[in-house]
Amino acid sequence: WLGLENKVIIVTGGASGIGKHIARTLKDTGAQVVVGDLNAETGSQDEEGIYYVQLDVTKKASVEQLVDHVVAKFGTIDGLVNNAGINLPRLLVDFKGEKPEYELDEKAFDLMIGVNQKGVFFMTQAVVREFLKKGSGVVVNTSSEAGMEGSNGQSCYSATKAAVNGFTRSWAKELGSHHIRVVAVAPGINEKTGLTTDAYNEALAYTRNITVDQLGTDYAKAIPLGRPGRLDDIGNLVTYLLSDRADYITGTTINITGGKSRG
Ligand code: NAD
């Protein structure tokens, strides 16, 4: 139904969390899935047949190496999921004056911009060069509710995701006449991933001036559908967007937040 059999699709950050579920869902459709991740060994394959390449999206040379490797091995690229991302909850100013380490410093700023923004740009640039050779392709970017609504204690992260939304709209305009679609998905509160660790929750609770327990309760209450997002929910949406069934969808960011976010 989806027509993704044998399509070659790269998923960045697919060794963990949401990206891993996207990779698995795509594999179930018969696609040839390549995961590029900081935490991967080039040339390895898992039991499901997903192929791995070591990648650092913050390094243009690493990105270009991945694309060359995939084209040499699989002959083409049909889709790209820009999913690799990091989130360090940090305040603009440590109002309470108790934990200056939770005030955003230059290192954390550069890291978030590097992975979430620069990484998405250069990955897309390298892959779109391949798309243009055959006149088709789909890019799906992983944005966030934070990028649509802003987020208390996560202003830098939120700004990188708003940048992803800007890339999405701009590239859709730039590439539409080449039949290349660019879409983003904006998840909200989800099942735990490698990103939402205890350390993450502690940092977020401090920056929001609440306890970790309150964080959990407030989160749960705020979702109209009454549950956090499942990683499969996101995998299913991304898979649909990569397929020809979504042929008229481009230049937009789709919320997947159980009704919490207006977008
Ligand atoms: P995760 O930490 O479980 O997975 C992220 C993956 O990206 C990891 O495998 C990591 O090794 C990889 N990665 C990190 N830096 C990299 C780099 N420089 N180069 C290549 N790979 C790199 O996180 P997740 O929660 O699955 O998040 C996936 C995406 O979803 C991110 O873009 C995140 O911002 C977004 N998101 C997550 C949530 C959530 O609740 N978890 C909500 C909204 C949006």
Automatic annotation (TrEMBL):
One of its GO terms (biological process) is fatty acid biosynthetic process. The keyword Ribonucleoprotein does not apply. Keywords: Oxidoreductase. It comes from the Bacteria. One of its GO terms (molecular function) is quinone binding. Pfam families: adh_short. The keyword Oxidoreductase applies. NCBIfam families: PRK06171.1 (NF004817), PRK07231.1 (NF005559). Belongs to the short-chain dehydrogenases/reductases (SDR) family. This is Sorbitol-6-phosphate 2-dehydrogenase. It comes from Sporolactobacillus nakayamae. The lineage of its organism: Bacteria, Bacillati, Bacillota, Bacilli, Bacillales.
